[in-house]
Specification:
Rossmann fold, 16 strands, five-stranded mixed sheet, BirA Bifunctional Protein, domain 2, alpha+beta, 2 domains, about 20% strand, elongated, about 450 residues, eight-stranded mixed sheet
Length: about 450
C-alpha cells in the first residue's frame, strides 16, 4: 500500500474555495496600493546568503531557510570542521543561497541593483510568499504571503501619514475593526540612553517586543540574562507602564526624555504623525504603544503594528522607517519606510468573523446544462457570446441527469443556470433559472446577456 502523501509542517494546500477568499484579500490590498500610486515588482524566492544574513538580528538569522549547494555541497570541508564549526559558520560553507525571510531586505537589494532604472522617490508594492523556519502554530506558518508597500528616497513623514491612511483603507474595505499601534525607535533609543544602557538598545528592544506574548516577568528575566542590572531594569518599568491617551503619554515622555536629543526627535516625529491623522476621518483606532519595538534591527524611526479588535491573533500588519538598509548594499543615504500586510493572518481573521462577501466564491455567473449533444453544441455558442461580454460562464461538459447538473451548479455557488432542451433548441431560447429563488424564464441570448450584465 502506497504511503499517504504529506506536505511539510507549517505549509498548506488551498482548495478553490479558499483560493477565492485569498484572491479577494490580495485584490483588496492591491487596489489600495494602486490607489496611492505604488508600482508592482517581484524578486526571486531565493537570495544569496550574503544578502539575507545579518539583517534580522541573531534570532531572525536562525529562522532563515538555507539551501544546500548543488552537487557535492560538503566538498573541501573536513570532518573536524563539521564537528567544531558553529551551525552559522557551517551554513556559510555549504549554503550559498537561502529562501527570502521577508520582502524588505530583498527590496533594498533590488533598489541598489536597479538604482539607475527607477525614479526616486520610488513607491513599490510586492505580493509574494516568504519562508521562516519557525515553530508552526495557530496563525504562524513557515510559508506565508506578505503584501508590502514601501517608499524609498524620501525622508518626509508625509509617507508615514499616508501609510496609516492605507492601513485604515485596507481594513475598512475588508470590514475588519483594528487598532493601529505606533511607536518610534528613536524614543526607544532615548529610553535606553536615559536609563544608562545605550549600548544595549538591541537587547532592550528585542526583549520588550515580547512583552505582550510572555509578560513583564519574562521580559525582565531576559533583560537580566543580557547583563542589564536590576536597578536599571527597575528604572524601565514605569516607562513601559505609562498609560493614558497618546497625547498624555507624549507629555510624560517629554519629561522623561528631556535629556535625550534622539528621544526628543522621536517624540516630535510621533507628534507630527498623530497631529496629521487626527484631522482625517479614519475608522481605525490609533494609539502610541511604548512596548512596541518590532524585533527587526533595521528599523530606525516610526514603527507600526496592527491588531484585530475582534479576533485573538498576532499582528496582521506591521512596518516602519529604515534609514540605513540600502547602505548595507553600497547605497548610503536612501531613507525608506514601508508596511507589510500578513495575508494569511488576515484570512484567518475574516474566516473567524465570517466576514467574506457572499459572492466571493462565485466562480461563474451562469452554467449551461444540456440533455444531449446538439443542445451542448448550442450551449457552447451561447457561452462564447456571453464570455465575449466579460461575463464568467461555464458549460457542463458531460450529458448527465438534470439533478446532477443542478447540484453541480449549487456546489459551485453559481447563481443562474441556462437550461437547453429540445424545446429551447427549436425556439432558439434559453430557460434561465435563478438558483436562489427557483424562478425561471425563457429568454433569447440577447435578453440573457442583458440580464446577466445587470
Amino acid at each position: 500500500m502506497a504511503q499517504k502523501p504529506s506536505i511539510p509542517k507549517g505549509t498548506r494546500d488551498f482548495i478553490p474555495a479558499e483560493m477565492s477568499k485569498r484572491k479577494y484579500i490580495f485584490d483588496t490590498i492591491q487596489s489600495i496600493f494602486t490607489l496611492y500610486g505604488y508600482l508592482p515588482i517581484e524578486t526571486p524566492a531565493m537570495e544569496t546568503m550574503q544578502t539575507l544574513m545579518g539583517k534580522y538580528g541573531e534570532e531572525g538569522d536562525k529562522l532563515i531557510f538555507k539551501i544546500l549547494n548543488s552537487g557535492e555541497f560538503n566538498q573541501g570541508i573536513s570532518a573536524d570542521e563539521y564537528i567544531q564549526a558553529s551551525s552559522t559558520a557551517l551554513a556559510h560553507k555549504i549554503c550559498e543561497k537561502a529562501l527570502r525571510y521577508d520582502l524588505t531586505v530583498p527590496f533594498a537589494r533590488f533598489v541598489v541593483m536597479h538604482q539607475n532604472e527607477i525614479q526616486f522617490p520610488f513607491k513599490r508594492y510586492q505580493i509574494q510568499p516568504v519562508w521562516r523556519a519557525d515553530r508552526p502554530q495557530k496563525g504562524r506558518y513557515r510559508e506565508f504571503y506578505q503584501c508590502d508597500a514601501d517608499i524609498v528616497g524620501s525622508n518626509s513623514l508625509v509617507n508615514e501619514v499616508e501609510l496609516v491612511q492605507m492601513v485604515d483603507a485596507v481594513f475598512s474595505k475588508l470590514g475588519i475593526r483594528v487598532c493601529i499601534k505606533i511607536n518610534n525607535r528613536k524614543i526607544l533609543a532615548g529610553i535606553a540612553e536615559v536609563i544608562g544602557e545605550s549600548d544595549k538598545i538591541i537587547d532592550i528592544t528585542v526583549a520588550i517586543d515580547k512583552l505582550e506574548k510572555v509578560g513583564i516577568e519574562n521580559v525582565n528575566k531576559e533583560l537580566s540574562d543580557k547583563g542589564i542590572a536590576d536597578s536599571t531594569i527597575a528604572k524601565l518599568q514605569p516607562i513601559l507602564e505609562l498609560h493614558g491617551t497618546t497625547e498624555q503619554k507624549l507629555q510624560q515622555l517629554q519629561t522623561i526624555l528631556q535629556s535625550s536629543e534622539v528621544g526628543k526627535q522621536g517624540i516630535a516625529e510621533i507628534e507630527y504623525i498623530c497631529t496629521n491623522i487626527s484631522h482625517m476621518s479614519l475608522s481605525a483606532e490609533v494609539e502610541l504603544d511604548l512596548t512596541l519595538a518590532r524585533g527587526l534591527n533595521y528599523y530606525t524611526g516610526a514603527i507600526f503594528e496592527v491588531k484585530s479588535k475582534d479576533v485573538q491573533i498576532g499582528s496582521i500588519c506591521g512596518g516602519g522607517r529604515y534609514d540605513n538598509l540600502t547602505g548595507i548594499f553600497g547605497l548610503p543615504g536612501v531613507s525608506g519606510v514601508g508596511i507589510s500586510f500578513g495575508a494569511d493572518r488576515i484570512y484567518d481573521v475574516l474566516q473567524q468573523l465570517d466576514a467574506y462577501p457572499a459572492q466571493v466564491n462565485q466562480t461563474a455567473k451562469i452554467l449551461f446544462v444540456c440533455f444531449g449533444e446538439p443542445e451542448q453544441q448550442q450551449a457552447l455558442l451561447y457561452a462564447q457570446s456571453i464570455r465575449s461580454k466579460g461575463i464568467a460562464c461555464d458549460v457542463y461538459p458531460d450529458v448527465a441527469k438534470m439533478k446532477k447538473q443542478m447540484q453541480y451548479a449549487n456546489d459551485r455557488g453559481i447563481p443562474y443556470v441556462g437550461i437547453i432542451g429540445e424545446t429551447e433548441l427549436e425556439s432558439h431560447t434559453i430557460m434561465l433559472k435563478n438558483m436562489i429563488t427557483g424562478t425561471q424564464e425563457a429568454v433569447n441570448i440577447e435578453q440573457c446577456i442583458a440580464f446577466l450584465q445587470k
